[in-house]
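Treating backbone geometry as a discrete language has practical consequences that deserve illustration. Part of our work consisted of pairing the sequence of a single chain with a tokenised description of its backbone. We regard such an encoding as a compact summary of how the chain folds. The amino acid sequence and the backbone structure tokens for this protein are reproduced below.
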Amino acid sequence: MLRSYRYASHGLVLVIAVAISGYGVSDLNLSVGARAGGLSARAAADDGGSFGNVAMGRDSVIIKPVSIPMAALPSHNVIAYRVKEGDTLDSIAKAFGVDFREVTWSNPGLKVPLKVGQMISLPPVPGVVVAVKPGDSAFSLAMRYGVDASDLLGFNGIRAEQLVPGMRLIIPVDPATGPNLPSGVPADPLFPGKLMCPIQGAPIIQKFGPTSFALEPPYGGYLHFHTGVDVLAVFGTPINAAAGGKVTAVGYADAAGLRVEITDSYGLVEMYAHMSVASATVGQFVQQAQTIGFVGSTGLSIGPHLHFQLGVWGVPTDPGQLIGCTG
């Protein structure tokens, strides 16, 4: 016996009738209406049972809500964008709903300020656009970016043997986990895809941008410009990596004094300056929150503090919010 039932959700009414014969489905009717209502049976007097979100009539009719996607499915194509007058990393990222770090991640060697007319690649979903290099495999790429190889291949609609050098892939990276280091461990285990304060709970005493502080040199057309953020802490306080990556420089550098530089997973260079001691070594891979040195006052400094600077291929960039800093 075939029975019909109604299920209402978000203004849609699904009428489902399924009759089971043995182990097979003998009939299935589905209709969608625009009328509101509840889950009901025409024969309300009939006894029935339920199991989870599945209801069963006494004639072994199974009634189960059917999910119908109402939103557009995400694109699986690389977005090619031509830079216009006034564009910045932030404005482009906001226009396409991605993080500015994903813009730099997808365009190795990208320099700022951006040039009008240049083409940049953007992922249509949180993640990165990559060019396959010789020796790359689905497994090695999946490990590098912290995804499952089958997800990588499935999103791009290819098989493992179809990977060839030069091919561009979109690697969707779960914002809740972020990318991996080459060892396979999460680069940013505490705040995936974000920058944490290198000294948790410490106050920021000078922000990025133009300043009246005469000790700062001219930059970008300003008489005095602070190219990073200053975090106040006492001498010898441990300094932790704001984001995971590879240590690319350690040593003295003019006004920065003793500093450590980390090229993070997104291709941005983090500089930690004025250290008293550096505990990281060049070539080392570090995770977010790993200690890389200790607060000092080396270089052009008037007291113990950390100068944290974020750079896009040598150009200082506002790091934005540092999670855990105060002030």
